[in-house]
Amino acid sequence: MADLANRLEIEDLKENLRAVQDLLERHHLVEASGEPDYDGERTGAELEAHPRHLAELRGTIERLHPADIAFILESLPFDERLVVWDLVKADRDGEILLEVSDAVRESLIASMDSKELVAAAETLEADELADLAPDLPDDVIQDVIRSLPIEEREQLRAAMSYAEESVGALMDFDMVTVREDVTLEAVTRYLRRLDELPGHTDQLFVVDRHQKLKGALPLAKLIVSDLELEVGKVMVPELITFNAEDKADDAAQAFERYDLVSAPVVDQDGRLIARITVDAVVDYIRESSAEQVLAEAGLSEEEDIFAPVWDSFRNRWAWLAVNLVTAFIASRVIGTFEGSIEKLVALAALMPIVAGIGGNSGNQTTTMIVRALALGQLQTHYWRKLLNKELGVALLNGLVWGGLLGILSWALYDSKALGAVMTLAMTLNLVLAAFMGVAIPYVRQRFGRDPAVGSSVLITACTDSGGFFIFLGLATLFLL
């Protein structure tokens, strides 16, 4: 059922995008037809159609959730994106800026003047504004800070002081607190006076006069318990709590492991300062996963698919340069054995197989290790055990699949020696791939680098050059 709901949601997103694109196309067609005709005048139908299409487009956009509008903006070229952005109501600007990717957000912010940015920022809560602040001009941030009440101003300064990948960067100041000496009936009356509960409120936090956290009152218990009981009799005293300096990765793992919806954030003295909710954790996990995928491909940051050519070039050139160097090295390895290839043409047909299988195997190893590091499952003293295990897997794969390829090579080229060389080369290259698949993330982590960055590029470089050298070297020794 979840998969079906997800597919329907994606189809709805695509349908909304198609509707917007259709209206934009008709809008552009009318604009193009506005060129003076033979008598220099526009027809009445054209004059009516032009604003009608924009009005229909505005109506379509206003019915959508901010996240859906963000999806549409990310899917449009820059000029069409600005047309849609200009039709968004000003009071929704801030919400949408939070939803779009960093790259698209930069393009939207660049199109807005200071007054528009200040107005958009003022519609956000302190924790949301902290997420947007790094992309806003300094003068805008200062204007927004001056316009905030003192309490929200301090919350904003606190949220902005924490590292990007800490719990403090994810925490939410909007929460409900109660005292342990009041009755459940008083709590119920208090809740009824609120306009609405903060999003993802599954529990109320119990504090004393000094804001020290004493426990939590789950809403499920509040609903079924005797209203004459005091909060202290019903609350859950043992809670999973976080400190603002804790790693966001640790919080994400705790939310997944214990199926949390919300959790309190306390200071060093145990005072409640904020909470962290499942929606913030899910967003963090999604962004981290996207960054890891990009990093493995050698992309330094998330890229707007319609970004200017120069911006995309700057994002991609570094690892492409590395790839160029490694490809040149691989070509020189092949060049060293030109004489062998000329004497036995079959080598040219078989050597890409050795290199390709090695690259795939190495990427499997690296991906598994990077994931284990991200989950905190891999400790320093286990690296040797992991290396031995991966070498064993590579040796087994080499004997099985290398043996199969050796038999096929023997059958195709009627050469037992070529089949044996193929088997040995495949085995050795898979062992090399396993070694490098463990070594690359290990070395990068030891030097304080992200183990995912460029891992795919590096492992492919090693298995290509190494595979060519092993296969062609063995062939030169035993076949020629």
Instruction: Give the uncertain stretches in residue-range form.
Output: 35-49
CATH architecture of the largest domain: Orthogonal Bundle
Q: Considering DSSP H and I runs of 4 or more, what fraction of the residues is helical?
A: 55-70%
Gross morphology is globular
**Contiguous helical run count:** 21
Structural topology:
Elements: H1 2-33, H2 44-62, H3 66-74, H4 78-87, H5 93-99, H6 102-110, H7 114-121, H8 126-132, H9 138-147, H10 150-160, E1 177-178, H11 184-192, E2 203-207, E3 213-218, H12 219-224, H13 231-234, E4 242-243, H14 248-258, E5 262-266, E6 272-277, H15 278-296, H16 309-336, H17 338-343, H18 346-374, H19 383-413, H20 416-446, H21 455-478
Parallel strand pairs: 1-2, 4-5
Antiparallel strand pairs: 2-3, 5-6
Helix pairs in contact: 1-2, 3-5, 7-9, 8-10, 14-15, 16-21, 18-19, 18-20, 18-21, 19-20, 20-21
Characteristics:
480 residues; mainly alpha; MgtE N-terminal fold; CBS-domain; Tetracycline Repressor, domain 2; 3 domains; three-stranded mixed sheet; 5% strand
Q: What does this 3D model show about the protein?
A:
With about 475 residues, the protein is mainly alpha-helical. It has 3 domains: about 170 residues, MgtE N-terminal domain-like (MgtE N-terminal fold, Alpha Horseshoe); about 120 residues, CBS-domain, CATH 3.10.580.10; about 170 residues, SLC41 divalent cation transporters, integral membrane domain (Tetracycline Repressor, domain 2), CATH 1.10.357.20. About 65% of the residues lie in helices and about 5% in strands. It contains 21 helices and 6 strands. Helix 11 links the parallel strand 1 and strand 2. Helix 1 runs antiparallel to helix 2 and helix 20 runs antiparallel to helix 21. The radius of gyration is 30 Å and the shape is globular. The N and C termini lie far apart (about 60 Å). About 5% of the residues have low confidence.
